[in-house]
Structure prediction request, 141 residues.
Amino acid sequence: MILQLLSLLLMLWMGWQDLRRQRISNLALLALLACALLYLYRHGQLLGGATAEQKDILLALLLVAALTLPGMTLGQLGAGDVKLLWVLCWVFSLPQLLLVMVAGFLLLACSSRWMVQRPLPLAPYLTLAGLLVWLGGEYGR
Prediction:
């Protein structure tokens, strides 16, 4: 429970950091990864509540690489956003991660219609989508 709460707080903090400064702390990313790995070690499942299999985590990492690295090289995604998605591979199962990514990008697309003055950070939307998926998995059982 403590690791889950700490992870939620870290995700909220990273979303806030990205929204305010358009930077995500590497220390916060490492702390979230450490929480996820420790939770996986102690409970045998991911922080998002799903059972973890090595092939699923590897597939999630490959999928995130395939979907985000082109956007990063074209300057459409920040390195912090990509690193956050890589860490989320250890937090959520593949279906949950896909839902987080789709919801995060949709929320970003919706808000970008109203805020065209400056580039929009992705992490707040990924955080919001992740929290919704997490709470849905936690209370939808």
The chain has a mean pLDDT of 84. The two ends are 17 Å apart (CA to CA). Residues 2-139 form one domain.
